[in-house]
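Model the whole thing, not chain by chain.
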Amino acid sequence: MADTTGTDTNEKDTTGTGPTGTGRPAERAARRAEAAPAARTALARGRDRAPRGLRLRRGLTPWLFLAAPLVLLITFTYAPVANMVAYSFTDWDGVSPELSYTGAENYVELFTRPELFEVFFVSGYYLAASVVQIVVALYFATVLSFDVRFRNFFKGVLFFPYLINGVAIGFVFLYFFQDGGTLDSVLGLLGVHSDRAWLGTPVSANVSLAGVSVWRYLGLNFVLFLGAIQSVPGELYEAAELDGANRWHQFRYIIAPGIRPVLSLTVILSISGSLSAFEVPFIMTGGATGTETFVIQTVKLAFQFNKTGLASAAAVVLLLIILAVTWVQRRLVPDDKVDLV
Amino acid sequence: MSRTPRSRRPRTSRRGIARTLTHLSLVVASVVVLLPLLVVLLTSLKSEKEMANDSGALQLPDDLLNFDNYVTAFQDGRMLSAFGNTAFILLFSVTGTVIIGSMAAYAIDRYTFRFRKLVVALFLVATLVPGVTTQVATFQIVDSFGMFDSRWAPIVLYMGTDIVSIYIFLQFVRSIPVSLDESARLDGANAFTIYRKIILPLLKPAIATVVIVKGITVYNDFYIPFLYMPSEDLGVISTSLFRFKGPFGAHWENISAGAVLVILPTLLVFLFLQRYIYNGFTRGATK
């Protein structure tokens, strides 16, 4: 398989280069060998006695290694993006062979039918939750990067939820929010006798679900921050302490600047995560009582109502928003290289 | 990691208070994390009758060794076939990811070829496209290959969308001295031999990272198997557990047992590989 796909990729670059690329493969390989850095050409020169076929193989070698990854990348990332944009201008139902071009109709529908647009407000809950999540994760990462008793235990406890299966988390919290479930029992112990259906009204359901997502994803942010903080040289803290800096000063002037790249990465991940929230709400409520998120809606449009065209338009909008956020973030925080590994 | 050796002996009482508050916050956080899980564990050990008596979620079960619900969950939840399917998908997609990622990293780092920059850019830009947004169109492609409702659909998708692993491998390949390749080449080794005999063995730490991160992601994924493998026979851990809830409606003792069964392997892996897991996720996310 690797062989055939290898030639495929090679043909692709022929079309890409126009007239110069139309030469015989052997010549192209030779040109490539010339372009190689001195050390490698010197090596190749040692084998100049070798037949031409061997030199062709040397030019092809990187493509043989790249064939499988590139084919997968193009088939499952770029082709879908291109198709999705194309579908978004049609009324295709996803099954029938016929589809007709409808122009921007899907986009108009998306922005004029309020119920289709409402899902974005649901993302607001998750966005607010990510702010809480980042602040709390930052606090615990700072605290646990200093010497604290049972440090490893706390570290493990905070991170573990991130590793748990999403469906299991969904069920754990369905039970948690049950009438007479964990939350009500705990509140009862504390003397608060609440009698409410936590997932019963849109506001409390969304707050509950967003809370679950904080519970689930806090650990990842926490571990990322912790790794970043530990890459800050320890002497800095000692020096600061000698200068009389307290913990807040140390955080403000040493830790915060030191982890800025990870912080900005986390912000992007949180925004795109909030917009594409799916698992927790889908498993716990199926999108009922006003908890439908953008992705749940898109999946329903495409796979239940067979509105592939409309669903594609929705997906394009989501993708554009996420790309825009990333772009704005790159502008605000100029590309500092993340060098933590 | 005792960066502040002296802070163990609080110098002022204010420090002491701060220290107590810090510990308090950590204890509260641990309770918040552990309580929902512990309650589910307790519930899974209760009998149907105990549940009906409605003793409250925090009540201890009468018999701490009552595993009936686990038997029910394991059999009726078709957990055996779920674990089998998950293992199959894990094996192929993780192996594939390691091979594909390391080969791509080797080619990108060790060769100068035309369109090298373009190839790197293609991998880079792809990280910006979240998988969930393109799923509708990806579905049509997977379907057109006839892979819909087979275990190959998730396998190719997991292999094809994993760009993070290429970055992790790239980091490591860079740290392997080129002189090693060159001396091997002088000894007559070809590119594939160099990759297999020199690069791959030296990539062991990176492979461990990728296997762990990818393994956990695949084990926990719900979205892809849910969309691409609707047949009940093809249930993986997530989808089988999801379907299990249907017939058992409000039987929380059974559902809890199912959830614990699914969480347990993760907990064991976590306890044994903790350090590697932290490193893996730090590396994975920061490239």
